[in-house]
Design goal:
The chain has helices at residues 8-48, 57-142, 146-157, 162-186, 192-211, 216-232. With 233 residues, the protein is an all-alpha fold. It has a domain at 8-139: Helix Hairpins (Orthogonal Bundle), CATH 1.10.287. α3 crosses α4. It is rod-shaped and about 180 Å long. It starts with 7 loop residues before the first helix and ends with a helix. Mean pLDDT is 75; it is low at 154-158 and 229-233. InterPro entries: Flag_assembly_chemotaxis_eff (IPR053716).
């Protein structure tokens, strides 16, 4: 897949055209302000040039000509304002058209970027799935359960998030509990009541044996021992 947007140069050109159109709009609006300022100056000049009420005919004619010139200049200033406004409207329309053309290419760029992102996510997910399948197959070949191996890794390294560490601690407790139960199940059961009865029975037998009279054989052995002692004396 081609990761580079092929219309990148076109998009840059459209942005440059939009910037130029925006600059033209700014300039035309400045021309409107200049024309309006000229109108104000011409109005002030015309208001200051009052017609003379007295004087020679030549002076009066000259004053009237000057006022007519100022009036014509004022009219020209108004015309300049109108023309500047018309040019501004045209420049604004050109700016809007340039923005639309730039946006059209920009949408294609965004669509291409989204396609690349989805492709990268798909490739990454496929790699993860392949690694998981490979790891599972390797563990199966070694006879290791994947869940047990994952828990063992968490117990050994202590890695993972807080939830993973909590799950690992719970797994350790479960393993310890199962081990203790297994050891307890393997031990023989000892009934303390039976042991106490056996001890009491043994004590009774020993007590009776100590109290009973000596057997004839034992007495004969003791007599022989006394005779041997007397003969030696």
């Amino acid at each position: 897949m081609n990761r580079m947007f092929r219309l990148g140069p076109v998009l840059r050109a459209r942005k440059a055209q939009e910037d130029a159109a925006r600059g033209a709009v700014i300039q035309s609006r400045q021309e409107i302000r200049d024309a309006q300022a000229l109108v104000k100056r011409r109005q002030l000049d015309l208001a200051g040039a009052d017609a003379p009420s007295e004087g020679t005919a030549r002076a009066m004619v000259a004053s009237m000509v000057a006022r007519q010139s100022l009036a014509a200049s004022l009219s020209g200033a108004h015309r300049m304002v109108g023309e500047a406004e018309e040019r501004t409207k045209e420049k604004v329309a050109e700016l809007a058209d340039a923005a639309k053309r730039r946006r059209a290419v920009e949408m294609l760029s965004e669509r291409h970027a989204e396609t690349v992102r989805k492709h990268d996510l798909t490739v990454e997910q496929n790699n993860i799935d392949e690694m998981a399948v490979t790891s599972k197959a390797r563990n199966a070949a070694r006879g290791i359960d994947a869940t047990t191996e994952e828990r063992a890794n968490a117990l050994r390294t202590g890695a993972g998030s807080i939830a993973d560490r909590a799950a690992a601690a719970a797994a350790r407790e479960e393993v310890a509990r199962e081990t203790a139960l297994g050891v307890a199940a393997q031990r023989p059961f000892i009934d303390l009541a039976d042991a106490r009865v056996a001890i009491e029975r043994t004590r009774s037998q020993l007590h009776l044996a100590a109290k009973r009279s000596p057997e004839p054989a034992e007495l004969e052995d003791e007599g022989n021992a006394d005779d041997d002692h007397g003969s030696r004396a």
